[in-house]
Amino acid sequence: MLKKNAIENRIIEIIYLVFLGIYAGIAFSSSTTFFIRWNPTFLLVTRILLICFTFYKILREDRWKVHEVVLVFLIGVSLMLSYYLNGWTYMGDSALIFELVLLVIAARGLDGDRIIKVYMCVILALLLVTAFAALTGHINNYVYTKASHDYKPRMSYGTVYPTDFAAHIMSLVLCYLWTRKERKPWQAIIPFTMAVFCLVFCDTRLTSLCLLLLAVGALIPAGILTGLGDRIPESVKKVTSGIAVYSVPVMAFIMLLISRFYSDSNPVLRLVNNALNNRLYYGRMGFENYDTNLFGQRVIQIGSGGFASVGKEYFFIDCSYESVLLRYGVFVLIALLAAYTYIAFTEKKKGNYFRLFLVAVMAVLFSIEHHMPELGYMPFILLMLSANSTNKDSKTGEVSE
């Protein structure tokens, strides 16, 4: 009987990972110059199958806990209402919201590490194929120059814009570090190398800084600061871990506040705005042009990617917190903040403090990039209900399966 259940569970996990791979690929393709037009019948059939699979998972699962029901209800209802009330198209301005909700629910009880690993492999393979196709002339490889970047060529490697390519790199590095069972000093080489690459060839300065932050953080659990943890008072540890747990809502509050009340006359905010490449300025413009409501609205944005924006006035909200607030609404923003806080709290309870650091880096990343709710870049919300396969060993301090 136990063997039968184990086989059934394994089959269910494989089916879920297949769905994840399909939708990760669809989401990824929307940011490339392949410009794929997915067959409507394929999309409809896949959606129906995912709905059936999710309902089967719900029915066969053990009794749901109260906090799980609350989180699913908050995220599911808010996203779905925003999806339908605003009339989002399937592959339009808010693609895969419906599927994201289903994937979050269906991930309950599955191996969270395996979800991230499969996602990482799918996106890495697609990114390599996209870059190769761009470099060999099979698809467009946009190269941009801007005065704010000293007219330095910025390559996109088959994505629509250099920041999209760098965002995929950042996502892959986060996935890689999240799933490492042991911390080794050489692991810091990966984010450091990617930071240099993105800076030199894509000139994505802020994303490169986040990658460097990951490189520094990757060194700390690897024994570079051996013994430091024993000398830190327990009270300090509680404070720092508490800050990490609530880093996403804290950063959301800070960014929304300074964007809403940004003024060129304030020298401090002007300095911050310059450092963030005018993100506060356009954030203030967003608040002036659009109201804040419960379920969002259509926000017309003109970015620098592709050629559709040529001759039009630039307006783009890069900050995920404001982008979600204005486009999806108050409830969706609260739901996403609650989800990431819950994930961080779960990792703290398990003693996975390095993952707390990764969540804190995500909080910073969401301040400068708009990809927080997008499956093509951020898979970590899928971990909200998943079973985590890694825990910190109380004796060795290492993370093991």
Describe the structure.
By secondary structure, the chain is mainly α. 61% of the residues lie in helices and 2% in strands. A hairpin with a 6-residue loop joins β3 (391-392) and β4 (399-400). α3 (66-85) packs antiparallel against α15 (330-349) and α8 (205-219) runs antiparallel to α16. The longest helix is centred in the first third of the chain and has 28 residues, at 2-29. The chain is globular. The two termini are 25 Å apart. The model is unreliable at 90-94 and 389-401 (pLDDT under 50).
Please give a quick description of this structure:
By secondary structure, this protein is an all-alpha fold.
Main sheet specs: 2 strands, antiparallel
Relative helix content: 55-70%
Number of H- or I-type helical stretches:
16
> Per the principal axes of the C-alpha atoms, what is the gross shape?
globular
Give the amount of beta strand, in percent: under 5%
Q: Which class do the helix and strand fractions yield? A: mainly alpha
Oligomer: single chain
Q: What's the alpha carbon Rg, rounded to whole Å? A: 21 Å
Q: Determine the N-to-C terminus distance.
A: 25 Å
Helix and strand element order: HHHHHEEHHHHHHHHHHHEE
- Count the beta strands: 4
